User: What shape does this take?
Amino acid sequence: MARLTSPATSIDYILLGLLSNAPCHGYELHKQLTDLCGIGLLWRIKQPNLYALLEKLERRGWTQVVPGGEDTHPTRKQFGLTAEGERVFTLWLHSPVRRLRDMRQDFLARLYFAQQVSDSLVRALIQQQGLVCQGWLHSLERELATFTDRRDYQMSVCQFRVEQVRAMITWLDWVWESYPVQEENR
Assistant: This one.
């Protein structure tokens, strides 16, 4: 089977995350993706597009069709992760977002799945992302210092990005406080 070499997208990882819990039919995945109390807050997808994405993940070798346990719908495909799909998802889940524009969907998706694993994973993810955000802030502040005219459009854009990153850092601190370190029983 030919493997795809194009980069994976947020929705690819979200689907892997949903399948990491248990194999699912496409309809079940779609229900999870439209749940406005869960991952549906971040991403919406039409059901036909979902099946195309599932086929893409299968071509990548990250998912596979697994035997279903339902006698009522024997023709429905049930999708599960392969070992490679599990590895790819785990690497993604344990890594911070590297591009500022990806924070809104990618980091929030990582946080969603990290919360399902453990508080310590959430804290580690927040800590790593905080360091990345601090790096973005320092870089943007250095760039901002090169401008002299406040009416310069480039300066306005740079200042906007500085304020975005500051807000992200404030929010990460807020989330961090929601996950206090648990003392181990001795």
